[in-house]
């Protein structure tokens, strides 16, 4: 459709306005419908550069537009996607020990859990991390799958975690 | 070209092997050449969801392959892209005050500065952050541009910062 402001193009404002007048492209509307209907969002991906792969990041950038996922006056516990749960489940290249040295896991979770989910009001379940599946035995890999299968069975009984604990705020 | 291992496809291994035998696609080789020739890499972008926009994240995911940017035995201070400098220069949607409440800026810089640059041996200059340019006066925006112009003039005299300070490691 036409631009809301053709004098000064602002991507964020244009998608916000397009969302409000139902002018987003069909694939985005469809993805937003899926998010809206979901009670639980599981993000499963291989960790690339301490974050999600670009294709998933692009899904966040394009689908979670202002008006749908957040509003500057409605964020964090008052966010637009309240009453939903999310879970980040990812595989890493490095071992658990390597990530533990610098507390990397806590810091890399912050932008995703706090910066995206919490910002939009989505509650967060304990992340599910499979460390270095490429470098462990076939048996270990099967154990990882079994553990995930087991966890899924009782996922609904889990309580959200505090993804923005006090120690971050110093 | 042909797959290194067609029995079990592993994206990371395939790009690594392709890099070694010169089998990466031309656009990647060209981007790697630019990185190789550069003394200073300036990443300029609008902050999207506490990280770089997907299109830039995709550039990192695709261009900075194992063998070129890092090697599991050669990382951090011994990384493959030593003797290069980097600088993250970005604009935000929210105000400085909003980001300051939770120390968000420190945490969102970690994956980019420590997780990518430091991991590959690239030194990091003080980030350059323009807060909420959309919401400030035209005069303030001009000041932001002037400050950046001024900084660029003496950038070569700046010393790298410690992007992985001790307080992270608790």
UniProtKB/TrEMBL annotation, chains A, B:
Cofactor(s) listed in the protein's UniProt record: Zn(2+); FAD
GO cellular component: cytosol
Subcellular location, record wording: Cytoplasm
Function: The enzyme apparently serves as a quinone reductase in connection with conjugation reactions of hydroquinones involved in detoxification pathways as well as in biosynthetic processes such as the vitamin K-dependent gamma-carboxylation of glutamate residues in prothrombin synthesis.
This protein's record includes keyword Cell inner membrane: no
Main location: cytoplasm
Matches recorded under InterPro entries: Flavodoxin_fold, Flavoprotein-like_sf, NAD(P)H_dehydrogenase_qn
GO molecular function: dihydronicotinamide riboside quinone reductase activity; metal ion binding; NAD(P)H dehydrogenase (quinone) activity
Domain Flavodoxin-like fold: 17-152
Organism field: Menura novaehollandiae
Gene name for this UniProt entry: Nqo2
UniProt protein name: Ribosyldihydronicotinamide dehydrogenase [quinone]
Keywords, comma-separated and alphabetical: Cytoplasm, FAD, Flavoprotein, Metal-binding, Oxidoreductase, Phosphoprotein, Zinc
Highest rank taxon of the organism: Eukaryota
SUPFAM superfamilies xref list: Flavoproteins
Pfam families assigned to the protein according to its UniProt record, in alphabetical order: Flavodoxin_2
């Amino acid at each position: 459709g036409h631009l809301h402001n053709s004098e000064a193009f602002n991507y964020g404002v244009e998608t916000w306005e397009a969302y409000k007048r139902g002018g987003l492209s069909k694939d985005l509307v469809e993805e937003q419908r899926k998010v809206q209907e979901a009670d639980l969002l599981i993000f499963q991906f291989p960790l690339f550069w301490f974050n999600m792969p670009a294709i998933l990041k692009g899904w966040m950038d394009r689908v979670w537009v202002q008006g749908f996922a957040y509003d500057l006056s409605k964020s964090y516990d008052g966010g637009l996607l309240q009453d939903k749960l999310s879970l980040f489940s990812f595989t890493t290249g490095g071992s658990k020990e390597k990530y533990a040295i610098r507390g990397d896991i806590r810091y890399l979770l912050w932008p995703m859990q706090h910066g995206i989910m919490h910002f939009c009001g989505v509650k967060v379940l304990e992340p599910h991390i499979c460390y270095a599946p490429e470098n462990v035995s076939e048996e270990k890999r099967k154990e990882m799958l079994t553990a995930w299968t087991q966890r899924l069975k009782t996922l609904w009984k889990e309580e959200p975690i505090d993804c923005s604990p006090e120690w971050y705020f110093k």
